[in-house]
Amino acid sequence: ERLDWMCAKHSQVLSFILVVQFPDGYEGDFDNRLFSRFLADFMRSLGRYDPAYVWCREECPGAPGRFHHHLVVLLNGNLSQNAWGHAEDARRFWLRTLGRSGSSRLVHLCEPASELGLQGGFKIVRGSSSCRTTFDEAFQHASYIAKTASKTRACGVRSFGCSELP
Prior knowledge:
4 helices
C-alpha cells in the first residue's frame, strides 16, 4: 500500500532498505523504545522528502533474544537521487539514540540484487519504459522483511509497523 501510494503521489520514488542493529554486548532492553525514538527523529529529518516507511523486528540469527530492525524507506524521488546520504544520516541518528559516538556499522544499507537497483535502492520513474519492472523489483526487494522464519513475537512488543496513509 505504501509503495502504491507513494508512486501515485510522486512521479519518482526512491525506495531503499536499512537494517538497524544493536551493538555487540548491548545489555539494555530489546523492546522497540529506542528504535521508535530513532525512527521518529529520522523521519522528521526526512520531512522535505515526504517519507513513508514500513519496518519489522527480527531475531538475530544464532543469537536468541537479540533483535534488529529492517526499515523500508520510500521518498519523493524528485528530491532525492540515491540512498547513501540518507543511510549516513540514519547511522548518526541511531548512534545519537544509543548515546554513542564515532563511526557506526550498526546501520546497513541493503543493496538490491537487481540490475535495476541503483545507489543502494530503486528509483521508480512513472511513465518510464522500466516503471512497472522497477516497481516490481522494488516490491520484491521490500518483501524480504515479510519473511516469517526469523520472526518471533515478544509479549507486549510490536513486531512491525508503518507510516500512516492520509
